[in-house]
């Protein structure tokens, strides 16, 4: 299978490197030429545009930042759909609104192209180790087509259901993580106020029923959300707003987790 990869950021770059290392014929495209420099020691080819990349690919993986970027690289004047042959597949690894994937899938279908949503969780280190979580949504046979490539950087690969359900799972994951950040930071602060050393408390809780990934992240950031806000704050804020929009449109109860996530974002703003 020939694979095209767009979006060589902190998470996308190790994903692309794993695809290359697995032996797939790989073509890369990036807005900034400097982004491609670290791949000079690989057999990966370079394309001059998303359309040119798509023209030599069977599967195009998109791992850019937000909805606008995804739409641009797929449907722009020199976008993926301009070059991808009928029968090709697009996998959207970006975290975006489920409706964005559904709308793009309709555009792709009109050209004989299939699209799946496949957002990822775990970050660059997990991608480099081949341990990303991929949450897929779309036709089962299309997901099966993509699975050998996904397996280069992901374990597990979970098929969540119809198109858009992968994005919903990722948004729910990120909102729960954001909410957990607030409770973890508050618990450590409360312990400090009660005379319990935050580092000792974090070490103890890590082996108890209150352990969580969020607590580990807060502990690594010296017990505050300051560093997390600078690194992940904008993306978490985007995802909380996306899920709030989806939940509001569906009239679905989710006030507790969304409110807790909002509290975490407010705390991040205070500490910046």
TrEMBL record:
Domain 6-phosphogluconate dehydrogenase NADP-binding: 2-161
Key words of the record: NAD, Oxidoreductase
UniProt KW Oxidoreductase keyword: yes
Domain of life: Bacteria
Residue ranges constituting the 3-hydroxyisobutyrate dehydrogenase-like NAD-binding domain according to the UniProt record: 164-254
Protein family (similarity comment): Belongs to the HIBADH-related family.
PANTHER family: 3-HYDROXYISOBUTYRATE DEHYDROGENASE-LIKE 1, MITOCHONDRIAL-RELATED
Protein's recorded name: 6-phosphogluconate dehydrogenase
Organism: Streptomyces graminofaciens
């Amino acid at each position: 299978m020939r694979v095209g990869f767009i979006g060589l950021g902190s998470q996308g770059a190790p994903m692309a490197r794993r695809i290359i290392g697995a032996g797939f014929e790989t073509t890369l495209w990036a807005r900034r030429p400097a982004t491609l420099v670290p791949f000079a020691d690989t057999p990966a080819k370079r394309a001059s545009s998303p359309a040119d990349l798509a023209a030599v690919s069977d599967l195009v993986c998109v791992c850019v930042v937000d909805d606008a970027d995804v739409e641009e690289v797929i449907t722009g004047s020199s976008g993926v759909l301009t070059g991808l042959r009928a029968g090709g597949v697009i996998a959207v690894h970006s975290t975006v609104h489920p409706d964005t994937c559904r709308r793009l899938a309709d555009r792709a279908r009109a050209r004989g192209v299939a699209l799946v949503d496949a957002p990822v969780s775990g970050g660059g280190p997990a991608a480099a180790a081949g341990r990303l979580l991929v949450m897929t949504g779309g036709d089962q046979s299309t997901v099966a087509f993509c699975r050998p490539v996904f397996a280069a950087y992901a374990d597990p690969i979970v098929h969540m259901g119809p198109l858009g359900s992968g994005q919903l799972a990722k948004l729910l994951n990120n909102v729960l993580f954001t909410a957990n950040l607030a409770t973890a930071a508050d618990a450590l602060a409360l312990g400090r106020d009660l005379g319990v050393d935050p580092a000792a408390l974090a070490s103890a809780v890590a082996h108890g029923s209150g352990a969580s990934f969020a607590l580990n992240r807060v502990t690594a950031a010296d017990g505050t959300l300051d560093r997390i806000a600078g690194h992940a704050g904008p993306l978490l804020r985007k995802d909380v707003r996306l899920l709030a929009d989806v939940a509001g449109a569906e009239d679905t109860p989710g006030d507790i987790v969304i409110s807790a996530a909002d509290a975490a974002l407010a705390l991040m703003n205070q500490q910046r």
